[in-house]
Amino acid sequence: MENGKRREIYVPEAEASALSEGIEERWKLEKELRQLNRKNSRRSESDGFLCMVLTGKALKPFAEPVKGFCLDSGAL
Length: 76
Description:
- The chain is built from 2 helices and 2 strands, in the order H-E-E-H.
- It is an alpha+beta fold.
- Strands 1-2 form a two-stranded antiparallel sheet.
- A hairpin with a 2-residue loop joins strand 1 and strand 2.
- The longest helix has 27 residues.
- The radius of gyration is 25 Å and the shape is elongated.
- The termini are far apart.
């Protein structure tokens, strides 16, 4: 978009097939990346136990309800 207006670029026929092949290759690679990310998620299974590690923003909803329960206020 340029100045709030849609701008289109027409690709010559000779370049269109190469561009199309590149787009298809990118889609394949993105699909493969999503599959690898699913396999390498933060879940791990060892000896029948499932462990899920939460960090950052994902941990906040679990930590918020117990905020201020520390018996020794100097420990923080």
